[in-house]
Amino acid sequence: MKRSSWEEAFAMIGKQLQALDDPNEAIFYTSGRSSNEAAFLYGLFIRAFGTNNMPDCSNMCHESSGIALGETLGIGKGSVTLEDFGDAEAVMVIGQNPGTNHPRMLSALEKCKSHGGKVIAINPLEEAGLIRFKNPQEIKGIMGGTELTDIHLQVKINQDVALLKLIMKRLAEREERESGVFDWEFINQKTNGVEALLADLKRQDEARLLAQCGISEVKINETVELLAQRKRIIICWAMGLTQHKNGVENIKECVNLLLLKGSLGIKGGGTCPVRGHSNVQGDRTVGIMHHVSPKLNASLERVFGFTPPDQEGLDTVHAIQAMHEGRAKVFIALGGNFLSAASDTAYTGEALQRCDLTVSISTKLNRTHLITGKTALILPTLGRTEKDHKAGKDRFVTVENSMGRVHQSHGRLAPASDQLMSEPEIVARMAQAYFGENAKIPWQQLGTDYDLVRQKISEVFDGFDNYTKRSQQAGFDLPNHTRVWDESKLPGGKAQFTVCGLPQHDLAADEFLLMTIRSHDQFNTTIYGMDDRYRGIYNERRVVLINAKDAEMMGLEKFDKVDLVSRYGGIERKAENFLIIPYNIPRGNLAAYFPETNVLIPHDQYADKSHTPISKSVRVRIDVKR
Question: 618-624 and 511-517 as β-strands: parallel, antiparallel, unpaired?
């Protein structure tokens, strides 16, 4: 390892990119930590370079949401705002643990409860943060907290479709008896496909659905009673729905329920995919995607005067495969800890090591910096908490939250070093190093003048008019046709019902279904401590949560040491030395932390259409260490 100057680093990147036989031999990854300004410049550079190889962290988390919502509602974003939670009569939280992963959302749920709303939690684990919320900013939070969850449905891993089908089947039967359960005016005027959906529900065997989801008859009836009487319903979800083979259909089944109830395009109702990174949605909005958008390409050509590539690029799993097979030779990451975030850790590491050059634009060191290509660069950049001061002026960037609101992000801390460069500057300098004197785009000016970047964003994308001024204070909401129900933007002019299949896992007698989870002392791949106090686990991460009866059946006791083994396509993968923790989890199911268990997830096992890794439903067996 040696220290290089910025000039040497940019020259090396430019030279390596110029030496490629084809622009598609380069991979450009983006983390959701990047700002709108940096991501826009990055996507502009990549397309001007000549490729759409733009895998991003969305591919590994909410790609399933984007595709499902796009196909049913015409926009790959949620429809609600934070204000909607105060108007909601019911909020369903599915496959998500706000207490650990999205703590700010607990305040929104508390607001719902204070206005008389009900909360239904659907999760294989009974998460403490969802059961009772203690808001430290209020007296009642100190004195005892708020009972958040009215109904907890402890569904078996990846049986959410079976559960939702059963709920909708019961609602449909009730509609036939007394009417008023479904919003037929909304359905008839604004949707397509309800007949096929109801016919499918009628064919479903209730006993099979009940056994498959693992919920008691009493709980199902209680849930149906609650939903039958309410229209303003919000459904929130996260990785517990998206990271499965049927991840896209999981989301579509949620949309089905909302459409039956007429819960879209109204205050207090709608879709809410809850994202983790602070700007994962914003990056996609300003052009970070491997898909081809003819509208975006036309706008870029109009504003910048070049013709963007029209060949679909590589998503994350296929980018890893291309690197592993030698078809991609340069990997550049704008943020993130790629090795720890991706599935199949050993395979991903080998893929990175086969590259001629790997580049990490990073705020701090992480594991990806240790597993590199033949030549590797770490480009240290300002974090968003650090002041961005240039030429006597404080600069700010912008981000978009999960609700589609764009707002400013100001750093307040002194930079770790006066040698750090901002992300927009780094991207612009890379572009300038590649294009040199032939550059038709003023890269260096864009890299230093964020107002100019925002002006260009407003020229390329709808909804960003007067961008810099409107981003002040609370910011502004981007257009969302599902929120205001603009039927001209819906697929075929109407929202689409979907007939979804039931998931099949075909477990062997000695196999379990494993879902990966985070601990409380963890944010994405960053681990701050060894405790998970909400689940009563301290000073250890290599643990596997198992139903006490399953542990007893295997002759296992608390803290026994085991290996977890997955087998797909004849290849065996092993995560060694995990401690048994008997826990309140459905029989046949296991849970363990990532990234430690990412080694078990095959790179070629992913969701249909979205290609999101199956991190929440991995077939494994337990090997006991004697």
Answer: antiparallel
CA torsion, ordered 447, 449, 453, 455, to nearest 10 deg: -160
Which three-class secondary structure state does DSSP give residue 171? helix
Tell me if 54 sits within 8 A of 23, measured CB to CB.
no
CA distance 38 to 200: 47
Span between the terminal Cα atoms of the chain, in Å: 42
What is the rounded radius of gyration, in angstroms, for the C-alpha atoms of the chain? 24
Give CA–CA dist 262/241, Å, rounded: 22
* Tokens matching residue 529: 């401590």
The DSSP secondary structure of 550-616, one letter per residue, reads HHHHTT--TT-EEEEEEEETTEEEEEEEEEEEEES--TTEEEEETTTTGGGS-TT-B-TTT--B-TT
In sequence order, which ranges of 344-436 are alpha helices (DSSP H)? Answer: 345-353, 423-435
Containing 274, the helix (H) or strand (E) segment is none
Q: Which of 45, 502, 614 is nearest to 300 (CA)?
A: 45
Provide the 3-class DSSP secondary structure of residue 327: coil
pLDDT of the residue at 139? 44
- Quote the pLDDT of residue 228: 97
Residue entry with tokens 């912008």: 398
Tell me, rounded to whole angstroms, the distance of Cα 218 from its chain centroid: 33
**Residue 295, φ and ψ in degrees, nearest 5:** -65, -45
CA distance 262 to 183: 5
Taking the CA atoms of 608, 612, 613 and 618 in sequence, report the sign of the dihedral they define.
negative
Beta bridge partners of 93: 121, 236
Tens of pLDDT, residue by residue over 480-506, are 999 999 989 999 999 999 999 999 999
Distances in whole angstroms, Cα of residue 258 to Cα of each of 65, 72, 90, 230, 374: 15, 11, 11, 11, 51
Q: What is d(CA 352, CA 201) in angstroms, rounded to the nearest whole number?
A: 47
Cα distances (angstroms) measured from residue 180 to each of 80, 183, 330, 464, 580 = 24, 7, 59, 41, 49
In contact, 102 and 239? CB cutoff 8 Å: no
Burial of 409 (0-12, 13-18, 19+ CB in 10 A): middle
Q: Check residue 143 and give its pLDDT.
A: 42
pTM of the model: 0.95
Q: Which residues of 414-447 are buried (b: 16+ CB within 10 A; e: fewer)?
A: ebeeeebbbbbbbbbbbbbbbbeeeeebebeebb
Kindly report the number of other CB atoms within 10 A of residue 155's CB atom: 23
d(CA 615, CA 597): 9
Distance CA 101, CA 246 (A): 23
**Mean per-residue pLDDT pooled into runs of 10, the chain (626 residues):** 93 98 98 94 98 96 96 96 95 85 77 94 86 51 66 97 98 95 98 98 98 97 97 96 98 98 97 84 95 98 98 98 98 97 98 98 95 97 94 93 92 94 98 95 97 98 96 92 92 96 95 95 88 92 98 97 97 98 98 97 98 98 89
Contact (Cβ atoms closer than 8 angstroms) between residue 31 and residue 333: yes
Q: What is the pLDDT of residue 101?
A: 58
